[in-house]
Design a protein that fits this description.
Two copies of one chain form a homodimer. By secondary structure, the first copy, chain A, is of the alpha/beta class. Chain A has three domains: 167 residues, Rossmann fold (3-Layer(aba) Sandwich); 161 residues, 2-Layer Sandwich (Dihydrodipicolinate Reductase, domain 2); 86 residues, ACT domain (Alpha-Beta Plaits). Helices cover 37% and strands 25% of the residues of chain A. At the A-B interface, helix 1, helix 2, helix 7, strand 12 and helix 13 of A face helix 1, helix 2, helix 7, strand 12 and helix 13 of B. Strand 12 of chain A pairs antiparallel with strand 12 of chain B, so a sheet runs across the interface.
Chain lengths: 438, 438
């Protein structure tokens, strides 16, 4: 029953595509020793045909038209690594319609057009695997879909954007402002020339949307995600957080709660002693809380040619193994049977419960603190710890830093609106959410 | 093609068996939503039948004879959770001979009798899954077998015994001696009344043997493992390590090297800034280096009823999915095709290359240091950093703590033998291996 080889069509031969080709070749022996037969790239689609031919040589057919690869009679699985929405979506849907399994690293496509793609895949009974779309080389999708399959997932919280984690690590380490570190990250190649998706939290929200779907068995709801980036963070707040025993991370959090799921990306204070708080530089980590196992964490490189290719190739090996099995032998694309996905609305942020870090610039006069705490208390917000510090050069002003206990975000909004009308409060209040992740 | 339910026979209803029964019941809806059909325990074998009936009620048949469960006509998978070698082995082999898949948490059995069990399973084409045997609830077996399947694994290094990690954490935290912390761990239920397997590294070596087999596609070689426990460690060395920027952990390390594999469990200094160095208390973590992805880490609870059951149930779900698929659709039991396992000998410790922490008690006289470094240098050992400290109450004696660069263990043995003959060296030299894990 053994077969000659499992034949792959690659769409794209850029960073991840090239990495995938390299890994398949370099580790060919080991892969065959695992599978019992080899995996072979037989066709690629690229923009620059000459460049591609130099990479793949004569053994692989090179096309400029992606559809030629999708429809290629030898191709048994289509690997989409071109990115973007339009062409990538057409090709993925064409592969599904042709009954060919799809492997893709395209988180943006799946997060935004997931419903269309996953329902087409379910109808056609075609697997769509996307381990490489979330957290690069960390096999966290497999952990959620299979390793923790005996659990009800309670929450997933992840550092899933390496660029912003690098920037935050540098800001903390060197006390430098955001803009300066961003420039440095761009020079090092850790940030794109247009860094919007990374620093504004959009890339993290794409990935979080997929994690949320497979954690809870729900549809992808990217358009409902609450997204804040790191562009407003100051080195000062990072330092105060440190003083209070916390690290600031851009966290993607999805949690099952009464009435729905939370789906939010924002800067977050995490107790320094948590393992995830110590994930530095471009590395990623995902923390998962589940009802049987408790807390587990998955750590590794979240981007890069070879780490991402590691996940692409893992998906290819899985498909190669299962392509001839009855479809019920495969793990469902979204971890749960497609007809058993649930409609869980995303909780509005006003209803989310977290603690808060607050920094207020106030007149350094008697009675101010009493005013503040009285307003907070009226809105059911109590204070856990506090720092008060006079500004060095302006004796009349002071900074007050507070950590609150858990409260409803809507209450915090009301309290801060009221606080900001006070004469003794001299600036907009800085607030950053706090997650204990215990 | 859907089926009514997948029927399980449980051998043992102790901590993990009871936990498995609980998780299957509590998460039954979620499991069915994933699989498309339910998993149902139909028979259990226990010593105390009355106690078992109180737990499982009338819906489940209770036997005192394990074979009755193995041979039960309804049972489709056998879960071995009784532990030990003799009876467990008989029952596992009987299940395999009956063509029934096996799930087991029995690391000792698989590490010591793996060859016999895995070859029987390969011959009979029956899956044997053992996620719960290593690192409790952390799905690290799945990560190695599938998530990183596109890689050549370079090394696996793990904190895979919670008891000893708890003891080391407490010794460091409170500066207490080993014996005192061990007693405390026993009172807390973190250590058995006979703690030998945990503190002497045997349990970790069982688990490491399995990790090694699936990382490299080799046979289980527990009897070749080098095993040192934590019973000789002093709070003083832990404190000096800390001063040098290191944590001491009981690490299981298996590494692919020229001419074979390393397979060793021993106390190890790890740079404090590594994530794995910050794994405290009874938690486990496994760090894996592989040629495509680089370094990844998997963290979570390494023991306990529900965490271990989480892994047992994940294995059950996998078998339920794949039981009717052709056998080539399943991942091989040891990650690689059984007929492609390789014979990699375990490297003798004399040939292993590591750095060392050394602590020497010497006469505080001129020339001693020159003697020491000259002997080390003669054996190709160079020094990275050093602390020299006079003993408070005895002015004539001093402690010298050295971190060496990488060297061959055989050279270190010779150098220390020579050093210990010096008149100015007043006691046996303390040495602990150092791993950078970068």
């Amino acid at each position: 029953m053994s077969k000659k080889s499992f034949k792959v069509g690659l769409l794209g031969l850029g960073t991840v595509g090239g990495g995938t080709y390299t890994v398949l070749n370099e580790n060919a022996q080991e892969i065959e020793r695992r599978l019992g037969f080899p995996i072979q790239v037989v066709a690629v689609a690229v923009q620059n045909i000459e460049r591609a031919k130099k990479i793949v040589g004569d053994q692989v057919q090179v096309f400029s038209d992606g559809l030629a690869v999708v429809k290629h009679p030898e191709v048994e699985v289509v690997v989409e690594l071109i990115g973007g929405y339009t062409v990538a979506k057409q090709l993925v849907l064409a592969a599904i319609q042709a009954g060919k399994p799809v492997v893709t690293a395209n988180k943006a496509l799946l997060a935004v057009h997931g419903d269309e793609i996953f329902s087409a895949a379910a109808q056609a009974n075609v697997p769509v695997l996307f381990e490489s779309a979330v957290a690069g080389g960390i096999p966290v999708i497999k952990a959620l879909k299979e390793g923790l399959a005996g659990n009800q997932i309670e929450y997933v919280a992840g550092i899933i954007n390496g660029t912003s984690n690098f920037i935050l690590s540098e800001m903390r380490d060197k006390g430098l402002p955001f803009n300066q570190v961003l420039k440095q990250a761009q020079q090092l190649g850790y940030a794109e020339s247009d860094p919007t998706f990374d620093i504004e939290g959009i890339d993290a929200a794409h990935k979080l949307t997929l994690l949320s779907a497979i954690a809870f068995g729900i549809h992808a709801q990217f358009n409902k995600a609450h997204i804040e980036g790191i562009q407003e963070l100051t080195a000062q707040d990072i330092a105060f957080a440190e003083e209070l025993g916390y690290r600031v991370k851009l966290l993607g959090i999805t949690r099952l709660v009464e009435g729905g799921v939370e789906l939010r990306v924002h800067p977050t204070l995490i107790p320094s002693k948590r393992l995830i708080a110590n994930v530095e530089g471009v590395m990623n980590a995902v923390s998962i809380k589940a009802n049987a196992v408790g807390s587990t964490l998955y750590y590794g490189p979240g981007a890069g040619a070879l780490p991402t290719a590691s996940s692409v190739v893992a998906d290819l090996i899985e498909i190669a193994r299962l392509v001839q099995a009855p479809s019920q032998c495969r793990v469902s694309t979204l971890a749960f049977q497609y007809d058993r996905l649930q409609n869980k609305p995303v909780l509005p942020m006003e209803k989310v419960v977290t603690s808060f870090y607050l920094r207020l610039l106030v007149d350094d006069k008697p009675g101010v603190l009493a005013q503040l705490t009285s307003i907070l208390s009226k809105h059911h917000i109590s204070i856990g710890s506090m720092i008060q510090r006079q500004l060095e050069d302006e004796g009349e002003e002071a900074q007050i830093i507070m950590l609150t206990h858990s409260c409803i975000e809507g209450d915090m909004n009301k309290a801060l609106a009221e606080i900001e009308t006070l004469d003794s409060v001299l600036d907009k209040v800085v607030r950053i959410r706090v997650e204990d992740l215990n």
